[in-house]
Amino acid sequence: MGIVLGPNRYGKAETRVVRVTRDGDTHHIKDLNVSVSLSGQMEDVHLTGDNAAILPTDSQKNTVYAFAKKHGIGEIEEFALLLARHFVDETPTISHARVEIEEYGWSRIPGKSGHSFVRSGTEVRTALVHSDGTGGTGTGGTGNGESVISGLKDLVVLNSTGSEFHGFVQDEYTTLQPTTDRVLATAVTAQWRHRGVDAEFAKSFAEARRCLLEAFAETHSLSLQQTLYAMGRTVLETQHGICEIRLAMPNKHHFLVDLQPFGLENDNEVFFAADRPYGLIEGSVLADDAPDAPAAWT
Amino acid sequence: MGIVLGPNRYGKAETRVVRVTRDGDTHHIKDLNVSVSLSGQMEDVHLTGDNAAILPTDSQKNTVYAFAKKHGIGEIEEFALLLARHFVDETPTISHARVEIEEYGWSRIPGKSGHSFVRSGTEVRTALVHSDGTGGTGTGGTGNGESVISGLKDLVVLNSTGSEFHGFVQDEYTTLQPTTDRVLATAVTAQWRHRGVDAEFAKSFAEARRCLLEAFAETHSLSLQQTLYAMGRTVLETQHGICEIRLAMPNKHHFLVDLQPFGLENDNEVFFAADRPYGLIEGSVLADDAPDAPAAWT
Amino acid sequence: MGIVLGPNRYGKAETRVVRVTRDGDTHHIKDLNVSVSLSGQMEDVHLTGDNAAILPTDSQKNTVYAFAKKHGIGEIEEFALLLARHFVDETPTISHARVEIEEYGWSRIPGKSGHSFVRSGTEVRTALVHSDGTGGTGTGGTGNGESVISGLKDLVVLNSTGSEFHGFVQDEYTTLQPTTDRVLATAVTAQWRHRGVDAEFAKSFAEARRCLLEAFAETHSLSLQQTLYAMGRTVLETQHGICEIRLAMPNKHHFLVDLQPFGLENDNEVFFAADRPYGLIEGSVLADDAPDAPAAWT
Amino acid sequence: MGIVLGPNRYGKAETRVVRVTRDGDTHHIKDLNVSVSLSGQMEDVHLTGDNAAILPTDSQKNTVYAFAKKHGIGEIEEFALLLARHFVDETPTISHARVEIEEYGWSRIPGKSGHSFVRSGTEVRTALVHSDGTGGTGTGGTGNGESVISGLKDLVVLNSTGSEFHGFVQDEYTTLQPTTDRVLATAVTAQWRHRGVDAEFAKSFAEARRCLLEAFAETHSLSLQQTLYAMGRTVLETQHGICEIRLAMPNKHHFLVDLQPFGLENDNEVFFAADRPYGLIEGSVLADDAPDAPAAWT
User: Fold this and answer.
1) What Pfam families does the annotation carry (chains A, B, C, D) (predicted)?
2) Cβ neighbour number for residue A218 with a 10 Å cutoff
3) CB within 8 Å: D156 and C121
4) What's the rounded Cα separation, in Å, for the pair B252 and D27?
5) pLDDT one-digit tens code per residue, B129-169
6) Subunits with 3+ C-beta pairs closer than 8 A to D
């Protein structure tokens, strides 16, 4: 039996960059968390510690900051692509780059100051980009070796009615009572894959987010899976540049509290919001002509 | 030398209750985290394990749920007072109750559904109430033995300019360069003490929050202490029912990145948002006629 | 374009179970966090909300507790296999089960009590099992459709010397200075795949953990990749039942503090332990005859 | 009504310092998290932003690092005292310093390497020191204006039997059943105040910790309060240099799972470890001749 090096990657994770842009007295800010992972000719560094192929993770961090200055920060998908292509194009030993970005939202504080902001929402916008350089900046191609996934996480939503759960399998360990009215709450993690790498990401994000919220609110739910699928389907139906969406939705249980011992009825009014355990529903929705790209998600 | 029992308290912490109220098809929700602490005749339970004076923490939890049904949940200060007075009034062995509540904000999801919500903001509204029962429901008094503190936490704000820091002490360990333009960012924790226990808490909260944001945005800052004081002063000046405010504001450092090695200038455009260490500024602002009530804060 | 359901799974996550076993006055405890994910005939539930194929996540939780009683809890790999096979064997609509377990360690408190324990270590032992039922309890086979991965996470280790980093790529964004002596610290996440499903998991775990620590300590490191590979290789060389190991090791930077402004030398004595950003090194080490099983890791 | 500045303090929080000391090939490490808070002539900085009295928090951080080099790091109480006295003695505008330290434990990795360590335990050792300078280095006095509190947190312990709970108050919201055998689990936070500032802190800490564990294990508990008091009393009885101890102990509920629906008995064998809500028991135990020092704890 021999022992060999398997798949590997390395990079600088969680570089926190805040970029201020001025438009006279009106400022704009972008607040990102950037994680880079590179792969390529990595045999030597693993087997002998020879770093000749290694671009230091410190240099990767510097690149994030320098690019924030040189190119500004537009949509995070574009910034991720810029970075990913740079690492592959400029470092001969690197053949593949993965760049993941989280963006935190800020709103303006009402008033006269154009430079004052307050963090908005618990929700985080995300991007995940892969590049092997073949879709390089000049080509504008669909990027055989490139992929762009947009998304969001920690979008916490709740329906206080309009959710049922019944007709399920009854085995010897089933004690759950069916219900025709329950609270449905979840923290949505969604990631959607674009067909190309040149989408209008700002518009696409706003639309996808709107679809997710709308489908969550307007689906009369018989199961969280049904809601999940409806959310994904709505995005694909309205956003033709998106070919696949993956959703992970914990069922954040809100248990009806038994108030009968206190002589009180509880007509779906008082709930205990539990922490653990929780249901976890994960699923993907696909256009049937979606090109295969499993590596885009890793 | 003898050994004696000192100050003590016990209770149920972090009871998570969600209350739904229906107005036809339009639902309203309140989402709270309630922590109760009781004290009183506690010698025996500590010295011998005799629980005759102990109202179980489980019963306290039940009370939170039952009260959510019976009384509904209005402003959290009022719900905390109801609970605190109940424990003192109804349990002979309990002479003092402390109730602390966190409230999480929800907004409606736009659209036709009246029962769909999305978590809004990272910020949490808080209340801290003490009662020894003497201000009981009927009296409406200022409550010698009662106190109400309102507040908020995790209100994350940032000024991208309008902040300076210079003229400080230079000792042998000082290497910091003075600056006339820096990013000022913090996560505000604020607690304000009411003169009475019958304030209009919803209005008072909205106004205090507005004052905090406005003063943060509009103070040209020479130090975070100056900003903190301005924020507190603005609340006291406009809200005469509030006699004291305490603020804790971490200086969430945003360090200017040195881009000179890459031939780039950084004119307050690109920042590294650091985690630790951070400055921590804590201070209180008082009306000079504020009644003494240190125990209100514990 | 049509829209179709893609890969999906659902289950109960993070069921926290503590199992006490008595041997006279001497008690033993097992403290687990169990997450179940099932897949199978899931079209209907997604498309129409028909739950006829759905074993409720609540029943899955009940099963964890009932099995803890009926079968006791031995090694977590075995408990995970028992659960996974049960769900596939007993629920006709379920064709695949994934069970993930975290185990928290406890030590005895020294003294006479046989029932008193203290949490030991920050480290968590893990298991990840897949089953499609074909390796059922009776067969003892290698389990075509079954796989067992053991592991650990949050094993935090540090070498205060014996680590160098130099000879790396210099690009226009490289400012890092080479070093021949640095602190190397990481929090190891390791997962190793067994060739079969009948290993001696307790012994195998103890040996793998010992190998990881030993290789970390005794590798004179020229790069974190070299250390990672040495750790993986040592496990594979000594544990022939293991055919693949994956490691994720953040480079928890300890930066040498510049004390020259204070007239002090810092001969690798005083370090700033940084939070973010951090390097992240991920890699796998394989036996060259390792059977292919990418799905085992998902 | 006038508005005035109330109590305030400021400083650098969470400076993470790792100190390596070499004894030939055998290294020793100290891993601390240091938080400094200063107070003094702070009117101007709050009212006008004049920083003439302000020692920058950045200088405080530098001081921590420089002192780690110059003085080494012995017991954290001593290091905290050194720092606190320095700030008060050397900065004319500062009249009071508070230094809080967390220490993370490391063990040696078995083997030949003298420089390899693994993080041990979830538990954190703590110190909290106040100084107004009057107990200065030379005097060795009891330090009227100085106080030293030692402690620990996140010491997670569990008794799988030997705990009862009955005989409690029954009110209209009480549904809890009395029990003569339950699991008792908690995460101990303990802080103890020394009579002087010159104790043998290493020995004292080891003894206090041993007492806490022993009393937890060997108290047959009728209530968590009884256990808490026994733990505190044991420390005070054996450590005469300690005059007060404060304990906060969440009751980490382990609920017996009802297995009857599955035809199984549960004779205190299978438990659900709940997250929230939890009981919270807080209490102090005092020597009856303990000098008054409430400010020591703030």
Assistant:
1) Uricase (PF01014)
2) 16
3) no
4) 35
5) 999 987 644 333 344 589 999 999 999 999 999 999 999 99
6) A, B, C
Q: What is the pLDDT of residues C63-109, one digit of tens each?
A: 999 999 999 999 999 999 999 999 999 999 999 999 999 999 999 99
DSSP C165: B
pTM for this entry: 0.97
List phi, psi (to 5°) of A96: -150, 135
Fold of D151-298: Urate Oxidase (3.10.270)
Q: CB B259 to CB A106 under 8 A?
A: no
Q: Which residues contact D292 (CB under 8 A, 6 or more apart)?
A: none
CA separation for the pair D81, D148 (Å, rounded): 8
Q: What is the ipTM score, two decimals?
A: 0.96
Give C173→chain B minimum CA distance, Å.
Answer: 6
State residue D85 phi and psi, 5-degree precision: -65, -40
Cβ count near C172 (within 10 Å) = 13
| Distance from C-alpha of C197 to C-alpha of C75, rounded to nearest angstrom | 12
By C-alpha distance, which of D103, D74, D1, D84 is closest to D39? D84
Residues 6 or more apart from A250 whose CB is under 8 A from it? A186, A187, A278, A279, A280, A281, C13
Enter the tokens of residue D267. 């004779």
Three-state SS across B127-190? EEEEECCCCCCCCCCCCCCEEEEEEEEEEEEEECCCECECCCCCCCCCCCCCECCCCEEEEEEE
User: Looking up tokens 């009306």, which residue turns up?
Assistant: B287
Look at residue A134 and tell me whether its pLDDT is greater than 90: no
* Least CB–CB distance from B119: residue in A21, A122, A216: A122
Beta strands in chain B (DSSP E): 3-13, 15-23, 26-40, 94-108, 116-131, 146-159, 184-194, 242-251, 254-256, 270-273, 278-287
- Range(s) of chain A covered by CATH 3.10.270.10: 1-133, 151-298
Q: Does B175 contact C275 at a Cβ distance shorter than 8 Å?
A: no
Q: Which of C173, C261, C275 sits opposite B276 (nearest CB)?
A: C275
Q: CB-based contacts of A106: which residues, under 8 Å, 6+ apart?
A: A29, A31, A117, A118, A119, A120, B158
> What residues contact B132, with CB distance under 8 A and at least 6 apart?
B88, B95, B96, B97, B145, B146
The catalytic residues of B are 12, 57, 253
pLDDT of residue C135: 63
From CA D87, how far away is CA B113, in angstroms rounded? 60
User: Are D172 and A262 in contact (CB < 8 Å)?
Assistant: yes
In chain C, residues under CATH classification 3.10.270.10 are: 1-133, 150-298
Cβ–Cβ under 8 Å, residues C54 and C94: no
CB C204 within 8 A of CB C214: no
Q: CATH topology for B152-298?
A: Urate Oxidase (3.10.270)
Tokens standing for residue C223: 């790069």
Bridge partners for A137 per DSSP: none
Q: Which CATH architecture has domain C1-133?
A: Roll (3.10)
Positions of CATH 3.10.270.10 in chain B: 9-133, 152-298
What are the residues facing B4 on neighbouring strands? Answer: D286
Residue ranges with strand state E in chain D: 3-13, 15-23, 26-40, 94-108, 116-131, 146-159, 184-194, 242-251, 254-256, 270-273, 278-287
Query: Hey, what amino acid is at B279?
Result: G
Say which CATH architecture domain C150-298 belongs to: Roll (3.10)
Homologous superfamily (CATH) for B9-133: Urate Oxidase; (3.10.270.10)
Q: What are phi and psi of B11, to 5 degrees?
A: 175, -175
Name the β-bridge partners of B94.
B40
